[in-house]
Structures are given as C-alpha cells and as structure tokens.
Amino acid sequence: GAVVSQHPSRVICKSGTSVKIECRSLDFQATTMFWYRQFPKKSLMLMATSNEGSKATYEQGVEKDKFLINHASLTLSTLTVTSAHPEDSSFYICSARGLETQYFGPGTRLLVL
Amino acid sequence: SQQGEEDPQALSIQEGENATMNCSYKTSINNLQWYRQNSGRGLVHLILIRSNEREKHSGRLRVTLDTSKKSSSLLITASRAADTASYFCATDSSGYSTLTFGKGTMLLVSP
Questions:
Q1: Residues of A with CB under 8 A from a CB of B
Q2: A8-51 pLDDT per residue, tens
Q3: Is A94 exposed, middle or buried (0-12, 13-18, 19+ CB in 10 A)?
Q4: Cβ contact (<8 Å) for A104 and B2?
C-alpha cells in the first residue's frame, strides 16, 4: 500500500507554545488528507479533512483557530497546535485518502507540559 | 462521531486459537473496513468489504457483513502472538473514503 510519513514522531513542548506536525504522502499524490486524534486505549476521532488548495473542513467541536491545518501541496499537510495546553496532549494521526481506503501515518505523540 | 461498536472490547486467547471480533454500525454504508493498530503506532488496513458482499477472505482473515443487521465480524484463524494489537472497524457511508471508526477490540494472543 501507499506510504504516509509523519514528523515528528513525538514531541514534548511547554504550555503556550505552538507545535507543527507534518504529514507526507511519499509515493502518491493526496488531494485529501485527514487528521485524527486518539486518546489512550480509545478510538480515532476525526478532527478535520484537509483538502489541497482549499480550507480544511473541521468536525464539530474542533477549534479551527486552535488546530491550524494547511495542505499546500499534493504531498504535504500540516497540523499546527497553537498555544498548546496539557489537555492537547494526545496521539495525532494523519491519513491520506486512497481509492477506497485511507493510508495512515505512524502517528505523532504530543506531550504538553 | 462514533458509528461502529466493536465487541468484545478486549479479547485474550492462546496462540493457535481463533479470534472473533464483531462490529455493529448505525447508518447505511458503502463499505466496511477493518484496521489493525499496534500499540502507539499508526493503522494498517486489513480488509475491505463492500455493502453488496457478504463474506471476504484474506490469508488468515475472514470478514462477514450482514447489512440487514448492520453488523460485521472479523475472524482471525490460527492466531499468533504477533497478532496482538487493537482492531478497529470503520465504515464509509459517503463513498469517498471518509471513515467513521468504532471503539476497537484489544486482542492479546499469548504464546
């Protein structure tokens, strides 16, 4: 299947700082990418759908000014957690839309102190 | 929002035994997919079954779909310790690969 990478794999930051997570599709062009959040031992919660060249579509309850998404190219989407707080600590996973399925990145573990 | 509900939430078996996980969903779907997630990692696509299909096989995996009951099952035969992971069902109601995930089943296979 297609390969999706995420960077960084884990990040620790201080409260109030911003953190950027990159999601890259390595061997195909992804016009649509998805960002999920996952709490320990829980399922994936879709945060937003990222469309190349246009604004992201956010799920209900997700603050778009808090979680900035940019999809400037067909192989890169970024999620920026602005003014991070401890409650933003979580596992963030991106995926790229394929023909009938999604190809997932390995995830980014964010810890906000 | 969560669509799928897997049961059991956790399953512990011995190597060589079969593992069965079930998934129920609420709305009509185009397809249903099963994913696997090792602890702290991303998801790996296992198998996709379309709404007009009733059963599908892939290696040691067997998936069934009953659209009248809005349910699916994943059977892993002759399980191995390496099968230890969380398994999620995900439904695509849009036809555009937008997925809604269930809560998952944590499978532990002991040697």
A1: 1, 4, 6, 32, 34, 41-44, 46, 49, 91, 93, 95, 97-107, 109
A2: 999 999 999 999 999 999 988 888 999 999 988 888 999 999 98
A3: buried
A4: no
